[in-house]
Amino acid sequence: MTIFHVIFFGFIIVAGYCNGSAKNLVNPKGIAPYGVRGVLDGAAIVYFSYIGYDSASTMAEE
């Protein structure tokens, strides 16, 4: 199973490298043309969702 994961992620990296463009990384409107606010908001939601799930499972354990 581990070899499958390595091959899978290697394929994803190679496919991204072949289809990607370096100008997207250096262009002022490249990676986050509307700012990183949406990315940070999404990360915060996922983080607090996990913390809530973790606390519920911890309480169920005791």
TrEMBL record:
Range of residues in the leader sequence: 1-22
Superkingdom classification of source: Eukaryota
Keywords of the record: Signal
GO terms of molecular function: amino acid transmembrane transporter activity
GO cellular component: plasma membrane
PANTHER family per the UniProt record, alphabetical: INNER MEMBRANE TRANSPORTER YGJI-RELATED, OS04G0543600 PROTEIN
Family membership: Belongs to the amino acid-polyamine-organocation (APC) superfamily. Cationic amino acid transporter (CAT) (TC 2.A.3.3) family.
Protein's recorded name: Cationic amino acid transporter 6 chloroplastic-like
